[in-house]
Design goal:
This protein is an alpha/beta fold and about 900 residues long. Helices cover about 45% and strands about 10% of the residues. The chain contains 25 helices and 27 strands. The strands form ten sheets. It has an eight-stranded mixed β-sheet with strand order 5-4-6-7-8-11-12-13, sandwiched between helices. Helix 1 runs parallel beside helix 11, helix 14 packs parallel to helix 23 and helix 23 packs antiparallel against helix 25.
Amino acid sequence: MSNHRHARMMMNDVLRFRADQYNNDYDPSLLPGAYIELDMVDMRLNTRDPISTVMRLGTSNAANAFIGPDFSFMSSAAAVADAAFGIPMCSCCSSSNDLSNKVKYPYFFRMISPDVFPVVGVVQFMKQHGWSQIGVLTVTDSYGSSLLSSIATECAQNNITIKVELTYAQANLPETADTIASVFASSGMTIFFFGGYSDDWAVLLPSLIDNGIFAEGYSWIGSDGMFWTQHGAGSPPGSTSDGAIMYYPIEEYDQNPLYQSLVTEWLSANVSKYPSISLGVYPVASSIYKLNCFEFLAYGFDRLLKSNPNLTLTALANNELVPYYEIPSTFAFPDMNTESGNVVMNAYGDAFRNYYFYNVHDGGNISIFAIYYTATNSFTYLYQNIEWPGSTSVVPSDRITSISCPVGSGASTGPQGSLVCVVCAIGTYNLNGDDLCRPCPTGAYCDGGSNVTARAGYWEDWSLGNTTTPTFRQCLTSDCCPTGRCTSSNPCSASTTGAMCRVCRDGYAMWGSGCIACSRANAGVVILFLIYGMVIALGCLLCPLKSTNVVIPLIWYYQLSTFMVYSTSIKGFLQAVLFFDINGFYNINKSLPCPFWTGPMGSIYAKYGWIAIILVEYFVAWVGVGVLKRRYKIMDKPRSSAKKPAIEHIERNFVCGLFTFIQAFYVPLVYISIDTMNCERLFTGVYLLNYPSIKCGSEEHIPLLVLASLVELVVVFALPVWCWTVLRRSRTTTDDRASVTDQVLRERYERSKAYLSVPVNFACLSLLVIMASGYSTNTFRVLPPDTLVIGLCICVVAHTGTRSLKTRESHIRLHIYLVGITAMSFSDNVMIQNSSFGLYGFQAFMLAIPPVFETAVWAVKAWMRRRKNTQQTDMS
């Protein structure tokens, strides 16, 4: 009975050839007078065909012995059926441990060792490499069950733990291969034993490769079934199996004289009946083992007949000798030299065979690297340089020390103590499969796996090119991810795009801190703000000189407060009114028509341009007021006879108003210039912090940088130096002989301390603007709040120590305002850190301090005047 035909040397042809030799007196002493007839039955891979064959031949008394089947699950079925007939059955290749059971299979013996013998060698091989934990995959038939029970027993006896144990059904393997590979991949095991067939291995291998477990750092050891069909069918494993290890019984006939004689006799026989192509060059053991079955059966029958003269060939042919059979001793010939050498069987009918251990390497080549001797449980290594999966000579460890995980997962220590891939939990993420679940970055939501999205008000800094650890930056406007959980493909509002969502989309224009929908510029809005600018110019021109000592500190207080106010709407209103910024009104009314500029560059130039326009309006107002005064002769009494009254009055108003204008716009000019110079490495280059679409040092930025530098040079350096020079020069000049400029400066500064008054005043103001603008960038925080407080304290100490201002009232006002700004910066920082602290009322109170203070000063002064008038009246 045969179920497999080898492409090199047909098993059945070997038997026919030997039968022809015996029938032609190849050995005249063997079964004299007998004629051996072979009935070749081809069977499918199932249990039904062997059972039906045994039943048919046994019932009809048409067979005196069975050779085969070749597979364990078929031999088990056939041997059970044969127990009813008592016909000797020999298998060349069935290795199931269960077939050693003589109670269950009394007439069965075999020319191969049971599975437990080579499995002992496999376990010994594992011990030699220091492996203590493995995974096992076996087929669900009797062959696989035998292998599984064998390796489980041997591993338990040798302190090797089977961490993962899976089985598969051949019919379902194409559908279950991916699941099997996935389970093994997630187990953390690196050493695997495969107990199945090479056809199954060919189905399974692609899934193992796809899941990364037939690769460097892993080992797969296959049973003889994996080798038998590969080698027997003539189809090499292929280069994808490079690194696999398999065992197979030793084929010892290469130098055996009997085997060489068989080859010679075959080649000299009838070529048409026994073609040389069937002989091949490298027959496998299955063919010779099947020949051993045939020879042992023939010589066994012969020995039995010769041992008792009452036994005849007729009785043998009629199967009347069944009571005389003793399996396996009747057919055991330990001293007989066969084509495969001496075959020794134990009491269970199992042949003792030694095993070759093979290594697949270099594109599918198969080489013997070790010999395992079952009798001594020892190895002889022919070479040590084994090729492991991944084409490496490095012996894999039995536990994963490094692991490659898919995107969205990271390495973790599994229950078996090895590294396994687990999906990143909520609050962590992985974007490139580098085995690490990272903590969620600030400004992002991490819902587990690779799901990372931006929080409301944050923008993903994707331009860094780092897809492993994304950076999320807090925006200065609400255009960044307005709804929350935004991806890098849709990070901005409907009106914005670009870096930090600071570029307006088509159909929108930049207005203040955001973009508004528009289709054309609206000249009416510009005219409205020109009127507003004229009001400011007239206010600077007509404001009495002494009143500027109150108005200017008040303006500075509220200008600096715009950096500290937490409420966006109040901040926008203060910037629009006190910074005289047409853009700032965006925060008040988002439905305003479009301006003439549409982008960040235009917005910055507009801020400078708007101040320049108000300055031009100031000159226009000065000329107009002068013309009106001359026309209607509106003149005050002159303070000096040295000059004509009209000229003195006009000149005094101009200088006083111009100095008021400069002081009122000092903070906006310094802030705009700092904003233009405030560069930081945000993305792949250096960009303006508040206008990240403008790259520092670019062609569009250089003209803006030059303009800002000139403004800073004039306002921050030239103006204080000029004021200091005037005050220093006028220290010895009397009031009657002082110039108009001297008179204007003397109203505010202490001229006797010219070296300190102007530098301290302007330096402190510039310092506060720089620190406040840095503080106001929130998350970017060029300067932390404690630094701002230090700056405020420095200003308090400097003004207190120098007493640079002229009046005590001015000093008190300055200190109160500095304390108020400090308190506002603290409250704003508290609300930024935790918005649940509702300190809006406190900030509103701090904003109300200046008018309360000025009202109190006015009330005190009014009371003092009434008291003085009352005393003068009483005295008169």
